[in-house]
Amino acid sequence: MFDTALTFNDLMFMLKGAGMTLSVTAFAVVGGTLLGLFFGVLRSQISPWAALPLTFVLDIFRSVPLLIQLILANAFQAIAGWGISPFVTSCIVLALYTSAYCTEIVRGAIEAVPSVTRRAARSLGMTWGQDLTQIVFPMALRVGLPSWIGLTLGVMKDSALVMWLGIIELLRSSQILVTRLQEPMFILLVTGAIYFALSFPIARLGSRLEKRWQEND
Amino acid sequence: MIEIENVHKSFGALQVLKGIDLTVQKGEVVSVIGGSGSGKSTLLTCINGLEPIDKGRIVVDGTEVHARDTDLNKLRRKIGIVFQQFNAFPHLTVLENVTLAPRKVKGMGRKEAEEIAVQQLSHVGLADKLGVYPSRLSGGQQQRMAIARALAMSPDYILFDEVTSALDPQLVGEVLDTLKLLADEGMTMICVTHEMSFARDVSDRVAFFHKGVMAEIGAPDQIFGDPQQEETRQFLSSVR
Asked: How far apart are CA B222 and CA B228, in angstroms?
């Protein structure tokens, strides 16, 4: 009924690409989230004026297309002779790109915690740090998580752009197979299914946490 | 003893407190009444140092609240405050709401903190709500939880900032009953309130604030029965 030249080895080749997609995404999201947490907390605590330089730099990462960032960063490190591998370059650029968005999510979530609730915490004798860790972070987590899940899923798809630095991730591997086997429809279908399989658990995890918290709130 | 001496406070160009003098003795219940914007709530947030003051001083048990070297976090352990908005911590159960500060601020063990919390929650009639999240409580129950949360720190003073103003009328009674209970037990309380009958029945003294000034203070019978100031008379006739 259905005939394809796609072999088991080809499929393994694609899964290897998927593994690359996952690892680039993981580095980018972990690095970007840690940076984003730091910048986001910083931005919520200092005045907008003091945060201006940081905001400006992060705006650059949010405004310039990721593809241009990747290619420029790679070219720059080559000219500077740093000898950083395309993989590491990709992870760094993607992490900074992620951090720029994550910073806004964190800042917004922290600012969504009512100041009167924080006052109540301080009035009980809690220190600034205790208020932050016991009250603000848990409350902000519930606000920011849906956006953060969206960011993670977005970064996973955006990570396809690292193929332009010669990295064979999922989309690039499928392109190679399309060129060789001339079965674009079927191969893209498989590729899409793999992307879905990678994203679905993350999306589910997010909605499960949300649901659990909603039952309480 | 809380000693308030010539306290001035402005928010920008708006002068909220224009020289307040008030001394509250241990075990005393003082109600503060007055129109909105008269500065009564601001005074409470100044007493526990949530707001800085511009002039004058507030001394609690010999410690000047706004002195540079005062450890406010330590001072706040003995001055509880309950706000108009209930300010429950929504991510914590009722029990956790009450145990959080004793554990984190006083360094109490979980078991000891829970014992105290259960005791205080029973006190305000919430013993059956320990594992419930605040969103499942009525406004009156949330406010009583906030009172238990303040009590769990075993404060020497409690400040009540219009604690019934955000409640549906039928829920006001249960919260006022809790306050009466505390007053009967000898807790030192300053209650900013719009509930005149409460102020009359429970307080040792009633202070009337008008435009940032304490226009009059005296025994409840005197303030409500024989007010000396024209502003007090006008205010009381407007709320009756």
From this structure: 8
pTM to 2 decimal places:
0.82
Instruction: Please write the tens of the pLDDT for every residue from B76-86.
Output: 999 999 999 88
Measured between CB atoms, does B85 come within 8 Å of chain A? Answer: yes
Contact indicator for B65, B58 with CB cutoff of 8 Å: yes
Q: How far is CA B110 from CA A131, A211, B102, B122, B130, in A?
A: 19, 28, 9, 18, 14
Residue B134 tokens read as: 């605040």
* Residues of B (172-201) whose Cβ lies below 8 Å from A: none
Q: Kindly report the CATH number that applies to the domain delimited by A8-216.
A: 1.10.3720.10
Domain residues of chain A, as ranges?
Answer: 8-216
- C-alpha–C-alpha distance, residues B240 and B177, integer Å: 21
Question: Taking CA atoms, what residue in A is nearest to B88?
Answer: A117
Given a contact cutoff of 8 angstroms between Cβ atoms, the answer to whether A100 and A62 are in contact is yes
Q: Which residue, among B41, B45, B72, B89, would best test binding to A if mutated, counting the most A CBs under 10 Å from its CB?
A: B89
Does the interface predicted TM-score (ipTM) exceed 0.85?
yes
